Amino acid sequence: MKNKYFNYSLALYVFLIPFEEALNLGFGSLLRIIGIFVIFAGIFNLKAKFSVKLEYMPFILWMILFILSFFWSTSTQWWLYYFQVYFTQFVLISVLIMFNRATININRIFNTLIYSSVLSSIILFIPGISAFTDEGRRTIILYTKTLDPNVLASFLALTILIILDRLVNNNRKYINLLSILIVLCGVFLTGSRGTLISLIFGSIIYITYYYLKYGKIKSIYKYSIIILVGIIIIFYSLPNTLLDRFTLDNLIGLNELDPNVHSRYTIWSFVPGLFKQNPIFGFGGGNFMVALDIVYRQSASHNIYLLTLVELGIIGFFILGTWVSMLFYKAINLKSPLALSLTFTLFGIGFFIDSLSFKFFWIFLAIVYIVLNKKEIEMHAIK
């Protein structure tokens, strides 16, 4: 019974992640409340001994460094704000991967991700609960709150890789193909260029690695052609405002090179100077905007790697690099196309948005760890 409550509450949490920003109600974040319930349900559901695997260590060290950075933070107020954001997620993911990884119903979580993504994508077509932003991008509007199209697109893109994995390993071919095409429509409608680039490379990595592992080129070739035709139809059905976002110049950011325009490149150009001011420990966790305000103005970093370099210095940057590298190594060593493509896409998206601040990053990180653990158990069973 405890396991049932735990898995169903986790599924509800996952289902609501795309709507995170709209769930900040008067009494607090509904998603955070559900997350806390999942934590306690997970603690009472303990059916395995606590264990910290080597690949978890950079994740833990990153959190420890963030906590210690309180003592040198430029603004303790911003440190506290982001500590609350990160620490809740850290505890949740720790409960999932260190205590309950063997009891999580991963298929139910995958189903929930797909249902949520398909629903979100369909909503983007419905007037009244979705609309175009000032930039001509489609997004969801709930309780008068406009969801960030980049965050929504990230959730959808990562779920596409899970559907792709099911497509090549499952008998429900047509349902999975249809789901991919529906969710792809959602990604295109959001106009998220960085997410689309990450998804394209993540999909190529999945298909290539799957072929190298299994050599089943015929089925992959057939599905790839169908999806490619679908993408072409979707692309040329988009409004002109969205088509403009996906021109080659816009995809590689040439439209943002003007130093007089507020853009990612403008923000990133100040990072080397800020890094030189505090190269070892940085300005403290959660303090990127405060640091940037010294030389420019307050703004998000739009890049988790530069964010880490400024906030936690070269030590934090090394930990983050080790974190990513160990996940890649583990996925390749265990021969898991899904874990490898999810890792690439998840941390690829981090080049374009501050994904550490959003729950989709942490839940998909947990999924990568759980997939790797499941694969490890399978390999040991074969031996």
Topology overview:
Elements: H1 2-16, E1 24-25, E2 28-29, H2 30-44, H3 57-68, H4 76-99, H5 106-123, E3 130-132, E4 138-142, E5 145-146, H6 149-169, H7 173-190, H8 193-214, H9 217-235, H10 240-245, H11 248-251, H12 264-269, H13 271-277, H14 288-295, H15 304-333, H16 337-349, H17 359-382
Antiparallel strand pairs: 1-2, 3-4, 4-5
Helix pairs in contact: 1-2, 1-5, 2-4, 3-4, 3-15, 4-17, 5-6, 5-7, 6-7, 6-8, 6-16, 7-9, 8-16, 15-16, 16-17
Summary keywords:
single chain, 383 residues, mainly alpha, two-stranded antiparallel sheet, 17 helices, 4% strand, globular
Listing every helix as H and every strand as E from the N terminus to the C terminus, the arrangement reads HEEHHHHEEEHHHHHHHHHHHH
Give the oligomer, counting copies of the same chain as homo and different chains as hetero.
single chain
Shape verdict: globular
Counting DSSP E segments of at least 2 residues, the number of strands comes to: 5
**Helical fraction:** 55-70%
The end-to-end distance, rounded to whole angstroms, is 33 Å
SS-based class: mainly alpha
Task: Please describe the biggest sheet, giving its number of strands, its sense, and whether it closes into a barrel.
Answer: 3 strands, antiparallel
> How many helical stretches?
17
Give the percentage of residues in beta strands: under 5%
Low-confidence stretches: none
What number is the mean pLDDT? 87
Q: Strands across the major sheet, in which order?
A: 3-4-5
The radius of gyration computed from the alpha-carbon positions, rounded to a whole number of angstroms, is: 21 Å
